[in-house]
Design goal:
The structure is a homotetramer. By secondary structure, chain A is an all-alpha fold. Chain A is 65% helix and 0% strand. At the A-B interface, helix 1, helix 6, helix 8 and helix 9 of A face helix 1, helix 6, helix 7, helix 8 and helix 9 of B. Chain C binds a DNA duplex through helix 2 and helix 3.
Chain lengths: 199, 199, 199, 199
DNA sequence: TCGTAAGCGAGACGGTACGTCGAGTCTTGCT
DNA sequence: AGCAAGACTCGACGTACCGTCTCGCTTACGA
């Protein structure tokens, strides 16, 4: 049996160690929590992972894409379809804030977002990851629109921004303390609007 | 203990050069735009400002407070009292976005915000500056509440977060492109709410 | 303990490639000329020889014995028996200097000799090779002594050192330029001595 | 008092530390003795000298010129004028061999000489140092020639090479063991010559 | 004739040292 | 006492080799 034409050759030489790969990502996340983005050193990651520096640089050009990939391991929104937009949003956001408080996410996300501006490479890597993580949120709005729960001409992107906006503000400009209890009034206000017209 | 009126500790020796002080802050802002927070070096600032490193460290304990002070030079919200909350918000936000597009703000703010989490020292310095810049926004909400334009039991902090949230999201997670045109639908949606029930 | 006559441990499996062996030695000599002892890397040898590193380490424990074996490929003194010590020496030395100017010898020999001191392993390997190369020279002195051309109580080792000494000095401390013309006065002076008393 | 016209400016900034300079050279010599040329690392020198690596690289481009300068600290021939060439040579050489056995000289000299071939930079630095160290030896021959102790048409360079040649051979090709007792027969043989004519 | 044991090129592995750069401090002579 | 300059120690950077270790693939022998 002829080998498939485009097997791009299993590449000669010893294959890269999946074990080392995972150890590096794990060590990266651990250290991000402990010392933060700017305190993270490749040397530290290597030593924590029990790995040579070259093994890291063989896979990632710098610590930026390494951190992006480590970040990619962290959970994002978990979709949730209750039949009600308000309920969907509240459950998803509460769950998400719990993730912030139990993983490195609240340490890693602002670092990456803040660096993005000055690092085109990071920007390119970060964009699709960031977009993917948002997907379940947009899906909830889509479902709500199909159910007629929100106007069909609404800008879903903007709506999503409105709902998660306060979280972003808290994350970047306030203490970073994200309490799940903040979700209910946040979602209620976003749905009801600020105006007094309906009061 | 009254110190002599005009002597506020004249201190012996040569007085510190105001010229150097400003040159350092200017150089810092320039370099923040060019290379970002993490790429900024005190050595670079000193050389750009034509100043010795010691002259910088004599005034700021490290590069963190230097950057915060440089950041403090950038303009924030400009208050605006038209008698209507919607109008106040739209004018203030539009003006603010123009500032983003014409100063170093869109480069500096995310860098600082992203680093804040991992740098307690920065966090402490950044917090009050950040709060002050928000003040005119909260004032507009206060006026609206007094006018009865919004419910009196509304959480003004949360309201402000809701309104600027989409800007924060755009700044940190989207291209960073902040167009003044995005303000009108943003404010309108925030005021009206997402729900269709009362549309 | 008789092992089967023709089986000197034929060992199963694929036999080692003589081709690779020679390619490695050749590459080693080439690189010794180009980059010297301290600049020589096993990786470089492997790549130049078109060979895997393991193939090298399978045959030589480290780069030291590899270099010594490569060095062993270079020619040494070529014996020459004319019946006269002066003539023997002049012909042998002239020939040897020609070898220096046409092979890697003048590059490799000083490198090895200089490293010998700090490398006991090299020292042990280098000693017998070095001794063997000297043999024809000592043989010429032996013959001269038997012929009565030189005093029978003379220390032949010392005599040999005296004759080749100026070459060593030139090789290690002067430009390394070894001209065959320098041989005649060198040998004449060594035979006649410096003292004027009997001139 | 006017400063001298051509003081090429005392150069601004903090002057280089003589203390560090000497500590580095001392550490270099110590380590050359302990681990040899090829085992010597700049990192090791820095740590032994209690100095940052940059302080070393600020003064020497690489470890080669550093070692050359450290080598320059070692004593060479000590001139000695007894009125007799044989006596001069014997005393100078004996003294020199003692130096070999009590300093790093026997470790450093072959390393440098061996590397010289492949390192033009080293070659350039090493040449004059090497020449200077030879000077007292040549001076002794000069005096002998003036006294008529040796023929006036003798090539002094060659004569010097003849006398120290056996030492060079021993240093580079034999165990490196240089016993002061070897001097007397060495000088006697060089002066008398190998030939039997006068036996 | 075929299995199997060793050799093969390739290249990843954990390390160590490289030479550079920046942090924050210190030491000049000058103002 | 502040100033520009620049050396100081320290520590991380990203690279290059070390000598070792898989990979998947020959190759030649002996059952």
């Amino acid at each position: 049996m002829a080998s498939p034409p485009n097997t791009t050759s299993t590449s000669a030489g010893r294959p890269r160690s999946e074990e080392a790969h995972q150890a590096i990502l794990d060590a990266t996340l651990e250290l991000l929590v402990e010392v933060g983005f700017s305190g993270l050193t490749v040397e530290g990651v290597a030593s924590r992972a029990g790995v040579g520096k070259a093994t890291i640089y063989r896979r990632w050009a710098s610590k930026i894409p390494l951190i992006v990939e480590a970040f990619g391991q962290l959970p994002g929104f978990e979709d949730c379809d209750t039949g009600s937009l308000a309920e969907d949003l509240k459950q998803m956001l509460k769950r998400y804030l719990e993730v912030f408080n139990t993983t490195a996410l609240s340490a890693v996300l602002p670092s990456l977002a803040g660096e993005r501006f000055h690092n085109p490479e990071l920007s390119v890597l970060f964009e699709p990851v960031s977009k993917n993580r948002r997907q379940p949120l947009l899906a909830a709005f889509d479902r709500a629109r199909e159910r007629g729960e929100i106007p069909s001409d609404i800008d879903i992107e903007l709506a999503a921004d409105l709902v998660v906006g306060p979280i972003a503000v808290a994350l970047f400009f306030k203490g970073g303390r994200l309490k799940p209890e903040m979700v209910t009034p946040m979602v209620d206000l976003a749905l009801a609007g600020l105006g007094t017209t309906r009061a």
